[in-house]
Fold each of these.
Amino acid sequence: MENSLILFIVLLPLVGAILNGTVAATNAFRKKEIWGEKIAGIIAFTAVGISFLLSLYAVFVKMSGLEYISCTPYEWISIGELKVSVTFLIDHLSAVMLLVVTGVSSVIHFYSIGYIHGDESSVRYFSYLNLFVFAMLLLILGDSMPVMFVGWEGVGLCSYLLIGFWYKDDEKAAAGKKAFIVNRIGDFGFLLGMFLIFANVGTLTISGVNEFFHANNSMTFFWTNVAGICLFIGATGKSAQIPLYVWLPDAMAGPTPVSALIHAATMVTAGVYMVARFHGLFLAAPIAMNVVLWVGAITALFSASIALYQNDIKKVLAYSTVSQLGFMFMAAGAGAFVIAIFHLMTHAFFKACLFLGSGSVIHAMGGEQDIRYMGGLKQFMPATFITFLLATIAIAGFPPLAGFFSKDEILWNVFASEHGSKIVWFIGAVAALFTAFYMFRLVYLTFYGNFRGTREQEHHLHESPKTMTVPLMILAALSVVGGWIGIPKLLSFGAIPNFFHDFVGPAVEKFGHVHIAHYSHAVEYSLMALSVAIAFAGWYIARSMFRDLKHKLPDPDKYTGLPRLLWNKYFIDEIYIKYIVDPIKSLSTNVFLNISDKKLIDGAANGSASGWNKVAGIFSKFQTGNIQAYGFYMIFGAAIAVLFVLFVF
Amino acid sequence: MINPLGDFIVGFGGIFTISVVLILFFIGVATFIFRRTLLHMLMGVELMLNAVNLSLIYFSRLHQNFDGQILSLMIFVVAACEVAVGIAIIVKLYKRTGTIGVETYTEERG
């Protein structure tokens, strides 16, 4: 088979997952270890690491000069017009995702070896982690929507398994269930979109769908907008956008590397990737594009404002992730798919770094996650501090770190693109200000000032082992330099080519070009200066408020007004429970369980059973127990058969 | 006129043989249905089998091949086995209940 290399990239993590999964199951069953966390970690890391190296080879050697490479192992479904073949496609768009996912996964697998050390079910953990990578690769590389959907569901499943990894804790198990159920709502939208597309286009391959819109000159049909919005509902579930973002903050119950890998760097960006993948459809659906733009913008501001008042280090990062995903959707909604993917990549670096850093902090604090009880950690854990700080500077948008280029490009595109809007630009700018503020608040409260925890915790403080700090350093380095491959031409005066744009651009701009309004360079420069100023403002406010924290932080329960609203996350969870979850529960119990299930369905089943029992009672009278009567019936029947043959035929 | 035995039965020999077959068969049927002891019923079954054998041999001759005769030999063997098993069962039943009257055995009542 041609390019069977791709098959290895996808299947290696699956092999790792099966190996470790089997061993985890037998270990639990036989109460005896076949192999422990060490070998499991090595297997998992090797599988993903080789997959990463093969991806590098595939992208830079095999694909050089080509538009795409693909590989079709087998045809999955073939019924009439419906043909679904399992095709793995690496084009310039999926190549970026592929490298980001396998690369960040390798780093985080390595980190996990140190993090999960000492956990009794670490083999199971590594098997889930590998399974996740496999599902994610299916999602990224699958060229037909059903294959993508299998991956889409697969990552949801792994997310559920890993959030509820410590399932003996009820709260964590509940967080896993919440994530799964909320995701199911989104998946339903994705399915509907898929059906709509198949009904109208007649193909399920993604390239086929994009070709269709290209051939029809990006004509807008009514169903295009509906399909676009349906797909976007799927994206809101997976990528935690309003209204389905509620699962992501709770998902922080999982192990920290999982938060870094699944709930920051890879899985939650699947929605953005999917929108970029269907750029042909979205460009032909202006209303859907507008929905994407606005939902992204509102989510970015909304969750950034919640993050301002959170005290749990991982919760802050979770809301920050939601907000950054909002930025990506803003870019996608403005038609700047390249920039969306660029931000996706840089975000994967610095947010994974931040999460792993927070994991390192939590590890040192002995499980404490509340930043009110931290402080002054920089002298105890310098490596964690420096990497965390670098990632913070990157996310806040200081040049020349990664976050600056991508975020600035997003704001510029939203400002200037024909699909963008000035109001959305303003919302984005405010969200960026919030981002800089809450991130530096986090840094100052965690690493500066005096230690505010217990004496015992202070005694315990230590820098994390090498397996944890090395990944931090790698990711921090990437957060610094990662943006340099996408420096806008304007900033370097055309001296440095914009590698990222040149690489991804052709893949997503093939089907329709987005018109960018022409502004003078002065406007562009001043906007750029403004976003730097915003980052500085956020940093300065946070510094003046939290650098040398003398007084105690106020008790959140005593907040009033806006802080109270923000601390309680706008009471969204409570509203959902009161107005959606509870009514559905009572509907289910009162109508579906008590009436339709118990009365209708059980009644029908039991009624038909007893009915047939009565009918059978009549016929059982013929069975007298007299063998000779049976003989008579038989002869009688045979005689009728003979007569029938003789006189009817 | 319709020949109730079928158009392929020709001549006196054919009618005679088939009549014997039918008579034997219905004697067997009547024995099975009306005699009240298991042993007689078994004999009725044997009669039916032999009637069928006879018809097989006749048709084998008619069609000038030996398939039917070979089949009838096999039926002999099977019938012999069946009789052995059947009689063994009847003997067992007799030892258990002291009777081989068929009306005793009504376990199959629905």
Amino acid sequence: MTLEQSEFQKLVELMLELCEHHHGDPAALDAILSELKDLYKKIPIYPGIITMCLPKVVQPVEVDKLGVGDEVIFSLKDGQIVSGKVAEVNPKEIKLAESKQLNVSSLAEKVVVQKEAVGKAKRIMRDVIEKEWPTLDFEVE
Amino acid sequence: MPELKFKRGDVVRLEGQLSLEVKEGEVSVSGGLQGKGSKVVIPRSKSVPLEAEGEALIEYTLGQEGKIEQLSERTIPKEWDTLISEVIQRRPKTILVMGNVDVGKTFFTTYLSNKLLRHGLRAGAVDSDVGQADIGPPTTMGLGVFEQPVALLYEVPLSNAYFVGSMSPSGHMLEFVVGMKWLVEHGLKKADLVIVNTPGWISGGPGRALQLYTFELIGPDMVVALQRERELEHLLASLPPSRVRRLPVSTKVRPRSHAERAALRAMLVSKYFEDAGKLVLDLRRIRFERSYMGTGTPIDPQTLESGTNVIHAEKIPEGLLLVTRRKLSDKTLQELESKFRSVRVIKQGSERNLIVGLVNDASELLGLGIIEKIDYERGHVVVLTPVKNADEVAAVQIGSMKIKPTGEEVGTVRPGTF
């Protein structure tokens, strides 16, 4: 066999890996796919940079390190998945705006999450190209 | 004007902006001998070493951020001079210079070429740093022949250029290897030897492939591996050891950030298009290269869709290629797809700001252009370019970057769009 002559192969393999890693977490997959679409529109000629940026979209985070404005996904201990934007952080709870409870496919305007109810938390980084490689953050039609 | 006296062996670092004139004696700037009366100009953000060949006196003027720094020792590793002695003795025809980004490949090439010039050898330098091309404009690879010593590579006049159409080898591997080979062949006709600066993409499958297939295609007599540590060893393991020379990097190489690189690219592009004017090219006379457009059998747009949405249509082996004013309706698209298998749609106006290469019938690059518009109805393409004579242009090579004449990069284009 010979060497890979394009980084698209690596990108496909990364997508498969991310799908497996976030299996059962539609909020994470949705965030990754929407960022992939955005990145591909901006820099279709740089699959290597897309591959570098994509794993940074959904990252594990400690609940106490979250701040207002962070876009998050919580996998609650009871199996529910809740996503949204942090609107308020209190010692015992986090209030989310624009939130979704994905396991029951229902939309909720606001959700209050008890910190002790959180099993795992992930923070979503949107506009990853702007943060990682700002000179390639092109306007797209 | 301030003066500086040197004695043999003195070393200073010249940081731009500055200009100097040698008033007495001889100095070596980037390895090039500068005698009495020689003038050297170093622009902002560039720096080079000056070494006194004996007692010498210079007059200098410092501009913004310019300075002259006294150094306690040479910045050029002694291994470089050992290699140069070998080159003078063995006279290789082609030398490939490999190295990661920011290891000083450009400076090494300048230093080596200047030193060879002292021994009567004229080196051709192939610059493949398409993002910040020193020889030729950005998005191209250039060839320059050293006829006289220079402080910086960009002073070497452009002899030939090859259009790549991007700021990086990613997605442009073929343009890179073909371009390097094409320039080496031209260089060997004009110079005693050719030094090829390969891109700094050295790892990952495509990076390895680029370096190793370039080696296979060019078949250099010598490979100079400039490394900080052992970052090229994975490539060198696949090369014949007898042709490889490992060199340390110069101690004063300063890495550039993405933002610095982008700013430098913008400056080079804006400078290139400073005197550009509009050139109208007749679509019936010129051809598109590296493009699907113009490669198929024309179809009357009226036979495809009623109305005036479709401006241009052609049947290509891959299906149907259309240029439209607006987005096609889903129904029309489905009908066309069922008839032609695959439909490529180019929205009118999406070609604006696309970087292109304008070449003559011998496939020689006349200059870069930025497409303003392709007018299919009137049958012409309007390009902003420093090229003045439309009759010389035989073909328009399509690139994959969108750039404004100010140098601002405004997007990249998916290969196969046009």
Amino acid sequence: MITLENVTVEFDQRRVLDDISLSLSEKRIGIVGANGSGKSTFVRLLNGLQVASSGTVRVDDFDAAKDGRKLRRHVGFVFQNPDNQIVYPVVEEDIAFGLKALKLPKDEIDRRIDEVLARYGLSEFRNHPSHLLSGGQKQLLAISGVLVMAPRYVIFDEPTTLLDLRNRNRVERAIAELDQTVITVSHDLDLIAGYDRVLVFENGRIACDDVPAIAIPRYREMMA
Amino acid sequence: MIAGLYIDGNSALHRAAAGLKVLALVLLGTGVFLIPDWPVLAVLLVTVFILYPASGFGPRILWAQIRPILWLLALFFAVQLWLNDWQAGLVVIFRLAAIVSFAGLVTLTTRTSDMLAALERAMKPLARFGVNPEKVSLAFSMVLRFIPVIAQIGHEIRDAQRARGLDKSVLALVVPLIIRTLKTADDVADAIDARSFDPD
């Protein structure tokens, strides 16, 4: 369960999120809004990348303000541009990056890497230079690097924006198959159409909080 | 390209410890400067060349290591020929070719992660002076990782500026390149935080 109480975020006296209070317990949650509406700041709060100026953010037993490091292992984060998320030059090394921080034995690291590469059809690329992967493969590698840490929640910040249709569909399937609770920020409304709940952000506030069948048409109206 | 030169294999060099290979490279790199005779250096160079097929690499891969420095070898040889004689020229180019081809061989047979782990181990004694080996190792890996990324950004900017007729302006390339590189650095720092990097 994710709970926010009276959360405000300010940058240089500009209020980016304004007094947000809500609870999230659904399995699939979509976040939409215009650029600069506060949606990315909102999801960064959930992973502890952003600290609230006031108010509290709790994810299960973790307080985002106090348990930042633990929270980041509990809540995985997949960024829009996988090139900025992949930090090692070879595929398997990049997936092992987070696992080494967990101080896991080498056998267990290898087992988890094998498993996640097989899951996303990347096994043959295990020793491949990561910069030579296609855009879709890079995004799947970025997802692999997060999932291998076995987080309870996974946040996707515009995961399909840079992808062609085929790779967009691959990533959509990959997200749909996840057991974890998924929170997806997206301008791709088809991606979140089957979700349980959609939050529409406008000027740092939640303008609509409902099922996709109501929230998405409302968002279209707002953007018209 | 520097990143991703490793080629999988099961030769003795592939199996050798990364630290040992780097140490051998350091010894060779300094040792060649103690050898003043070109025939001895020629034998050393041929030995390094023989290690390529022995490690499962064909002449094309060996050529790929030497080809980028051919102009440098030619230049050094010409300078030595002008200042001294052809024997001195051979000494200089054999030294350089031996170092570069052996460095290539080490890179081809050693995973980046093994190389970085060796680096981390070698730096452990420096921890007492406040050096964090994990941070240094991460910095090295990121240099290797982001060379192609920055190069790609450079290509994109150059194409965009060409389309605007600014292909001769250095400023039109450098300014957006710096801005995008700094933005990338911010995003990467976020990603590293998000992936629970904890060197302490």
Amino acid sequence: MTLALTALALPFLAFVLQALVPPLRRSGRGAAAVSIVCVGGSLAAAARLWLAPLGAPLVRRWEWIPADGGPLVTVGIYLDPTAQAMLVLVTLVAFLVQLYSLSYLREEPAPALGRYYTYQSLFAFSMLGLVLAPNFVEMFIFWELVGLCSYLLIGFWYERPAAARAAVKAFWTTRLGDVGFVIGIVLLWRATGTFDFEALFGLAEAGRLPAGLALTMFLIYLGAVGKSAQFPLHVWLPDAMEGPTPVSALIHAATMVAAGVFMVTRAFPLFAVVPEVLTIMAWVGAFTALLAATMACVENDIKRVLAYSTVSQLGYMMAAAGAAAPSAAFFHLLTHGVFKALLFLAAGAAIHAVGSSDIRQMGRLFGALPQTGIVFLIGTLALSGVWPFAGFFSKEAVLSAVWDGHLVGPFLMLALTALLTAAYMFRVVFVAFFGADRAGGHPHDAPPLMAIPLWVLGFLTVAIGVRVAVAGGETHHPRGWLTALSLGLAGAGIAVAFVTYQWRVISPAALARALRPFDWMARRRYGIDGAYAGIYRGIILGFAWLIGWIDRYVVDGLLNALSAGTLSAGDLLRRIQNGRAQDYVYGVACGLLALLVASQIWR
Amino acid sequence: MGLQAYLLLAAAVFAIGLFGVLTRRNAVGILLGIELMLNAVNINLVAFSRFNGDLAGMVFALFTIAITVAEVAVGLAIVIVIFRVRKTVEADRLDLLKG
Amino acid sequence: MTPVPVLSIITWAPFGGALLIMFTARHRPLAVRLIAAVSTGISTACSLWIFFTYDRDAAGFQFYEKLSLVPPLGIAYELGVDGMSLLMVLLTSVIILAGVFASWTLTVRSQEFYALLLALVTGVYGVFVSLDLFILFLFYELAVLPMYLLIGIWGSTAEVRPRGIFAWAYRATGVGTKEYAAMKLTLYLLFGSAFILVGIFALYVNGGNASFSFLEAEAAGFDPIVQRWVFLAFYVGFGILAGIWPLHTWSPDGHASAPTAVSMLHAGVLMKLGAYGVVRLGIGLLPDGAIEWAFLVGTIACINIVYGALAAMAQTDLKYVIAYSSVSHMGFVMLGAATLTEPGLDGSVFQMFAHGIMTGLFFALVGLVYEKAHSREIFRMGGFGRTMPGIATAFTIAGLSSLGLPATAGFVGEFLTFLGAWRSAHPWWLVPAVAGTLLTAVYILRVTRQIFWGPESREFHRLSDASGPEWVALAILSFVLVVFGMLPAVAVGPVDTAVVPLLLRLIR
């Protein structure tokens, strides 16, 4: 318990120091040191915690919002094996990324670097808080805070219009999902009277959850759709690559985007009672995986390829969760977190060396950057699902779970995705790291501060895989034909990429011509981004303009008309006042006469 | 002659005075009209006092006469000032209060 | 009666400051500011003191003072605070203290400006602490009237083009000028106070014990028919000040024209006066009326939320954006009150506080930006984040609170309101409320991006960040916003002690 609190408190301490002591923040490297030391401490605490076996979940709560008769909302800590594993992943990747950033961003001015590390500390704190949240409200709080950090870090280079746009887009899109999430939380509270996971799981276990939770859980799932970039709210993640690459590695690959999957896993006992929502989740997940994979195939920006592959892999995780196998989803989350962070950091090293993120500007990097090349290849093999790398096992677990769930459609989509994944990832490898020499200048390998995180993550990618291969995991039940299928798909994908981009027997242009409709649509992102832009510009802004006009010229217009009417009525009455005393007396006399007459008539 | 005759006389004087006030162009004429109206009131007061045997009416009439004198004094003074400033005492031209 | 009349000190200290400024500080601008800072500082210190010494277990009205003024008519100078007014007093203190610092650089007739500002604050404090309806009304008028001079003399003028079928009326009334805004605001609020006065007299007549005392009226209970109409009168009367649709149009014009400190105080505190009136006098004294009209109040609040947000999105003048956001956020306050549930009312009062601080911060920032850039046109600005990082940070904090981001005060108020809405008799209120937060995110982030992000606009030169006393204002407000967002129990605790008895009367 103390360890968990320590892990949570250290990054917060770093954030508070950096936020409230401007000289520290402006010193840049000082802020970085504070940040790294604190997150390193968190990592140590998390690792120590992970080694200690845990019986029942540890729970601790404090009152947050009081109400008559017991607190309405509590905050606290909920520590179970899932949270333990997640803690290690988050602190590890955060620590490595912060180390890596020190070198990657060394040309930034000191205040900007300080700002970067302030956001990083806040992110580490928020993400750990999300992992440890014991109830939906606290989870939502940190959920929004990681969203905030994502927004701030995507917009780190705020002077670039593209970065500014991407940051705002990311915030809006995830916020759209969060609207569902918060409504779902409120509905769930009304139905069960609590936000607390332990109490809710107790109800679920006893079968005393109220009926008709499908809508509620679907709304909560919408939160995950936004955060984990599921179709149709996936549009923000590729654009989020405008942020610095280490940020993409940490937030938009390993941790924050996986928060949606983590939430579904965490609240799985509740999702388990609503099979219809699970089915939707599986189909949407598989569809997202396939859709993103096709878009990755036509993308030339190395970071965006990785972003689409992240979307695709998140689709995998969601499909597994939808197939009622949260453990498979979570396993894939962990392995993916490690190797995708690796891929991003390696890509960052390549971008750093070449000065561009376009793979057509790269080539033969393997010779110039051997270290980066090797780790990138390790990551690619893992992502493509090649034995014995970590990705192979988790992917197979997902496929196996989906097959067991009798979800044939999603299974086929995921299998096709596996093929495409291998193809587009090896396309990047062949074009950027082998192939023709197109890189200008003399790219050199990453400095040690950047290399160490790469090697650590590369080692872990292999080690996790080997460990599962040797020991077998509880999540891994080999099934002959499935193993063969997934290896075959990966092999086929690699072969396609090899034939097209390395051997060049088939020219890429010919391939594109053969699949012209898909190629055409994928290059335009299937029009989804365009549709959102249209809705935003046309409908929301148009409607806002209309309301603004109505308010100014109709609602307020009526008032001004009333006011102007009063003024002109006064103007009319003014004419009677002609200033001649005799006329007034005449009026008085007439009035008096009228009164006299009236008093005689009605006496 | 009964009370009625006095009242009729007073009413006639009052009406003549009012007519003067309303129709005279000259400010002095208007003041004279007001004078007539006030004297109509005096006639009434004295007549009622005489017929009801209450001296209070006489007293009031004396007051009224005194006030009338004061009023004429002030009124004529105003008219003279107006004449000095605006070179006219014609009521129609004195419309500074026009809204 | 407490040994020290602390509520009287809080209420009259600014007034004393105003008198001192008028009579002793002619042509000494620094003395004016110091007197203002000290007198509001006294109020703030006392507010903090009562906030933390208020006995939460005993609840009810504390720090009670009573001085009979006109015994035959039952008028007394009667003061007291419960959990709800406690928070409002604290809000007023924070805003006025920040407001004094935010207008530190004012140059024109600062003596009169500060004197009027302080007199106005006395009125605001008075409304929050009075327990006598007659005195409450006097304070209410004192709070409303100086506004006319403050806007009319120190205000700024915007351009509004006459369009639409009422274009003739726009030319006749001079829409957009500061005189127009001042007149509109004053007339609107006086129109509202006529309803309030009628309502108070109706209660006086029907109460049967010839007393204006709130506590006696609370104990008396009223006939349902009386309750129905008097509640409506209070709702319209106080609601105008709270910016209820469609009687809200004084607020954008008034707030946009007013000088910085006045906008802060008006949007931050005076609009709360309206909401506080509806909750305290409306729901507190007329429970049956409240139940009867809850549907109307809540539905109009929902319109406020969505309509205000959309209208804010359509503005190109920064100050108008913030002003319309107030209209939208006051919708949350009124919605929370209309739910007539414990979380809803807690949320409503908390949102009053949160919105007060946040909008105070917003207006302070807009004032600063205007002072540096001499423009309020959003789409001419850009890239200010580089030259004014402090202002950008504070603006972001205020914006995040405005869109209900957790760990800022805005979230707590909105979330409690959501809970209340879903538990109320009309659960669908939840949907427009949540949609409102999404729309808020759209316009706030859009404005933030346009002004502070992106490449630097070439039109502006030598922009600088906030300096000196201005920092005090920004720091106080940002700090309060974040601290109350992280530790809402500090404020929700006392509020809850006031809300629960209110609801018990409602059920009875």
